[in-house]
Amino acid sequence: MTSEERFFHQLMGKTRALFLKSKTFEKHQDKNWNSAICETPIQISKGLFFGLNWGGNNIGQQTTYPEKHRKRDWQFISHSRKYFREYLNSEIEDLNYSNFCFFRTPKAHQLENTDWELAYPLFKEYVDFINPPWTLMLGKSNYALSQHISSKQEFSVWDDVNKKTVYGYTGILFSKYPLGAVPHPQARISSDARNEIWKTITDRIKEKAFNENN
Predict the structure, then answer these.
(1) Measuring CA to CA, which residue among 36, 38, 49, 37 is closest to residue 95?
(2) CATH number of the domain that residue 141 is part of
């Protein structure tokens, strides 16, 4: 067993124990929601992308270390692949993919407010173990995550098709890791606007990552 696998199983044990103590579990014991750590194998010093929390219903507890190469065709991933290739020169399987909260609910608003704070130290432990050169959030942060983001700088582009402004931002996660945030893959945004905001944000987190390492 590798050190990455050993860490995964230790963190999974902590996560499962906390989930069973959570207000969300207490309120929805009749639901099969469970928890998970990551969708790709832990890859030290590689980039990390994440959402708020795992979605889906009636999905079993994660117990095995994730395989690197397997079918990943759900929309969150399939809609994002080309942007990771274009702007970060990466395949999703070569990056770390997780969520800020390891507790699963069909919708993020179904997670009890206190459980965001309960779960965040687990995510921080995961991030610190990886020590990523950059992090990228797909979607909007919430109050719990925002408390751990500093030096936040907002950027915007105009979506001429949908006649609206599209936002992204950069910052520092946990006082250490360059962070970018782009709209959720399923947000209603034109292709041109999505490309522009991805380029704007990823250019800046790559620059921050380079400066941190030189």
Answers:
(1) 49
(2) 3.40.470.10
